[in-house]
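Quick sanity check, SSS sodium solute transporter superfamily:
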Amino acid sequence: MEHSASEVSELSGRVHLGTLDIIVAVVYLVGIVAIGLLAAWRHKKRQGAADEYFLAGKSLGWASIGLALFATNISTLHLVSFAQNGFDTGLLNGNFEWMAGFTLVLLGLFFAPFYIRSGISTLPDFLERRYNRTCRDCLAFVSVLTAVVIHIAFALLTGGIILEELLEIPMIYSLLVLCVLTGIYTIVGGLLAVVVTESIQTVVLLAGAALITWFAMWELGGTAETPGGWDGWQNLLSILQREGEQEKLSMLRPHGDPDGMPWYAVILGYPVLGIWYWCADQTIVQRVLGAKDEQHARQGPIFAGVLKILPVFLFVLPGLLAYALFVDGRLDLSMIMVDGEVQSKGVYASMITELLPLGMRGVLVAALMAALMSTVSGALNSISTLVSYDLVKRFYPSVSDESLVRAGRIAAAVALVLAVGLVPALNMFESIYNGMASIISHVAPPITAVLVLGVFWRGSSSRAAASVLIGGSILGIGVFTINTLSPEGILNQLPGGFMMMAFTLCMLCSIAQCVLSVLMPDAAPAKDDGVLNGAELAWETPLAALKIPGKTKLGDPRLLSGLLIVAMVVLYWCFR
């Protein structure tokens, strides 16, 4: 991504919607808000209870958890940026989707059991039980900050840009409408309303993305004489070979690859980002905390891992198909060309314009709104939970559930206003996607190191964890500042870019955690009162979690995880 986000409005052209498109979009908006409010109304007798509001009364099944995890993760950033990435570099950025499957297995098998058994309401709560209050405060601060900036503000930015092109109205108006509508059912209904609507939004999102893929593949399957056909994949291979771009189909690139993401950067760097995002970020893990029991908490992430196979084909592949159609002369991208070069940020809007007939574009508008609303609603609910449990309840331990819920609603409303205010600042990033990824690569390492060592090593000590969280965060901020002020400096010259930067920082934090734990070990617990102490909130051995059986043989999370891993290995082999 080489151009500022503000350029998208100049490059993308205008996408005209028909009456039917507008009707579809409006019906979707009204319907999703009504469903969210209906879910809240059906549980209104228990909405004063904090667990009911923040954790859906711990009633979520594995399917709802998996769909909600997927919907919260996928935002308009994925739809717009992945199409651009597909056009520019092929399937390479699909690694962020497929590698998530392996991380979700870690969440389901190793992390979720501890979270459920300890009865926590937030991830900072877990860190306090495992380590100390300082660790809780550090993670709570980072979690609220990243929820506002990464989950909400970046989603609003990319969503506003593309909706401005689709609806032909200023960005701020569409954002205000969507924020108000999303805020209504999220703030009123809590996690249950969020999960119910996210499950529906996932289906709408996938359906809309599938439309683009289908129409692009159908167009590529035809010829100039016979538009449309079933030979799209074969024609794609032929065009890429003719253009000398066969590597665009490769997910694992060699060292020195010009696109800057060699295979070792993916394997080493992604887990650092992924473990923080999928296993330690409240916005994501809150869906698991709302599970009805441990079995569903373990199965839900695995189902989400299965769903994460789809974005490569539904979000990234369309951009590659657009590239093939363009070089073959069958896709007009003149509206987003400057000085003879395609400015690929406008590819997604151009595909909607050129490939979808009137009437179908409304489905894409609904899909874009689904992606935006689901991400924002999930982040708002996590912010309200964090503020209520990790701030309000800390200073007012005897606060009533009703007051706790009220505080959470106020926090969500304030966070939404702050996120909207941040949109202009984030619009100054030269690259939206890389700007977000760069922030994560400097935030995640200390949290990943402390969490992984805390769960898999009982010798990981409290004072060491607090020191690493604080020191690692300061180090990350310092490195990010240097990289930002000196983009050509040595810190930005690591092979593998921000992925290897994340790995390097994580290794430094892990080494520091190990050394400090040896030098500053925790004292032995004074008595055995039946409550798990910090060291007991870690596995006896790294593979101890694999001894937990499932309730049924076919539903055993270990079996399901194994099947998912095999499927991912096969897919990587096919697109190596």
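Posting the structure with no commentary besides this: The CA atoms of residues 130 and 534 lie 4 Å apart.
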